[in-house]
Amino acid sequence: MQADVVLTGGRVLTMDPAAPTATAVAVRGERIAAVGSDEEILSAAGDGTRCIDLAGRTVVPGLIDSHTHVELTAYSRHHWTDVRGLTVRQVLDVVRAEAATSPTGSWIVLQGTFGQELPDRAALDDAAPEHPTAVRWSMHKFQLNGAGLDAAGITHRTVAPPGARIHFESSGRPTGLVEEGWDLLGWEPPAVDALRESIAETARTLFMTKGVTTIHEIAASRTGIAAYRQLAAGDGPMPRMGLALTAAPGHQPLITVDSFAGIGLPVGFGGAKLRLSAVKIFVDGGRDGALRSTLMGDPAHRWGLLSRAPQRLAEEVTAILGAGTQAWIHAIGDLAQEVTVSAIEQAVRAHPGLDHRTRIEHFGNEIYSDARMHRLIAAGGIPAPNPSFVFAEPDDPARRLPAGAVKYGLRTLLSAGAQPPGNSDTAGAQPFACNPWFTMQCMLVRANRNGVIVDGDEAISLDEALRMFTVDAARATFQEHELGSITVGKYADLAVLNKDPHAVPAEQLSTVDAEIVMVGGVVTTREQLAALARQD
Q1: How far is 165 from 168, CA to CA, in rounded Å?
Q2: Staple 172 to which of 156, 181, 313, 509, CB 3.0 to 4.6 Å?
Q3: Angle ∠(231,236,238) on CA atoms, nearest 5
Q4: What's the whole-model pTM score?
Q5: Do 529 and 495 touch, CB atoms closer than 8 A?
Q6: Can you tell me the distance from the alpha carbon of 279 to that of 286, in angstroms, rounded to the nearest whole number?
Q7: pLDDT recorded at residue 536
Q8: Residue closest to 424 by CA, chosen among 440, 405, 439
Q9: Do 60 and 494 meet the contact criterion of CB atoms below 8 Å apart?
Q10: 203 vs 221, 231, 423, 435, CA distance in Å?
Q11: Tens of pLDDT along 287-314?
């Protein structure tokens, strides 16, 4: 056997317990052909073999982001205006400048970040009275001006649909603050050609240069899906893409569970470059809209945002599992998690013995009940927390939601036998979280943006963090037989790093980059990715 590519003279972290380290790798076609010593691998080289001298550099399996929002991040980088970190006055200056150069009546959309102070309706009305304007904290919460409310048809008579919340003054006048309601605006994505290029730039610049070779995306629009199809059919370097489709009601819903389950498309439907990952269900809202028991003494319209009745959720999960598809369920608050764990238990009763791996996205961001955690694991479910969010946590524990809760309980989950997958879950508010090494830094250091340590006892090791972005992420997406470790027969997806992550102080892990990425045996250098980014 003659290899197409051999990499020698390095430190290969295979993530394969049968042979955890090596110095060299041979690749033939799209697959890993051999892993071992330099001498063993060089024997597979021939006249046509491309030989890469690693010069002592570290090689890891291609990293897997098991939950993110590339399309929304691409909007924030290319189609909206970034105002993250600006003061209210600076944001208003940006709005005025946008209004002065945009056609009357056209949308102005700005991307802020978690916890940022943003202008209210009155200030936005003064800055852009004739332009519908939206300033986003995140995908879960945004502020409109009067023209934006008019464009969305939101008045004092509007009743928010399930899972969303519109804020009103005591007089009944809408304040412009909306939670979980982006679909109410009628904002249209750009044309597919423009979106394709901005998605490609975002995937290459923010993900591939950090060693991410597989991304599982929550699709935001039909236009976005068309862009992904074109990119998968093209020749340019791109990560493997999995698409999760959101079921109504929820953010950017593309399907209903009943119609989709009737089609019977199983998880993994598609090809090696673009595949179906899951059906996504939103049970509650984001940070402020999570369904928590602590709010149940308030008037009902102030509770967290429950999108569907508990038994309806159980019906939906049962139908999804019966169709052979994986379910990813957004549930943050303790009541939302109880509803979801109960639904999974009912679905498992209906489908005994099924290896379903239903995921609860954000489970572990707020540690509530050990008993509920063990029920989820016993039922075959997977908790999928988002440790990069520790960066945005308030300094004061009393201001964290819910007050006093243990946040991002990775050590608790691992000790219970869970295998949570690594992910960024960023939709523009924290684009730096697309860097998996930043998220791993958060896992180890647990520091917020001001350096305050958040529940340091929940820190994990680098090896555990790497496992979350490789082996565990592959398992959580039904890809463990093809991805997640440098093992003979699996896809040749790997990353050659600029630094040995074990030699880097934990506080500097975010500085790790990939100098070479390989997807299915195709070698792309960091310089090539940079050149493509300049073209996109």
Answers
A1: 10
A2: 156
A3: 65
A4: 0.98
A5: no
A6: 19
A7: 63
A8: 439
A9: yes
A10: 17, 11, 14, 11
A11: 999 999 999 999 999 999 999 999 999 9
Instruction: Give, as one character, the DSSP assignment of residue 134.
Output: E
Q: How many residues does the chain have?
A: 536
CA–CA distances in Å: residue 331 to residues 364, 380, 450, 468, 487: 10, 17, 28, 20, 35
Task: Answer for the pair 238, 203: CB distance below 8 angstroms, yes or no.
Answer: yes
CA atoms within 13 A on the CB side of 521: 20
Structure tokens at 282: 């939103």
CB 475 within 8 A of CB 4: no
DSSP 191: P
CB 135 within 8 A of CB 83: yes
pLDDT in tens, 181-230: 999 999 999 999 999 999 999 999 999 999 999 999 999 999 999 999 99
Read off the tokens for 201. Answer: 């730039």
Residue 367 forms beta bridges with which residues? 406
Count other Cβ atoms within 10 Å, centred on residue 371.
Answer: 9
Look at the block and give the residue holding tokens 């037989």: 481
* Token pair recorded at residue 133: 């304007």
- Rounded Cα distance, 275 and 103, in Å: 39
Q: Is the pLDDT of residue 535 over 80?
A: no
CB 114 within 8 A of CB 137: yes
Type of residue numbered 232: A
Main-chain phi, psi angles of 406, to 5 degrees: -75, 130
Return the pLDDT at 533: 84
Mean pLDDT of the 153-176 span = 97
- pLDDT, one tens digit per residue, over 312-325 is 999 999 999 999 99
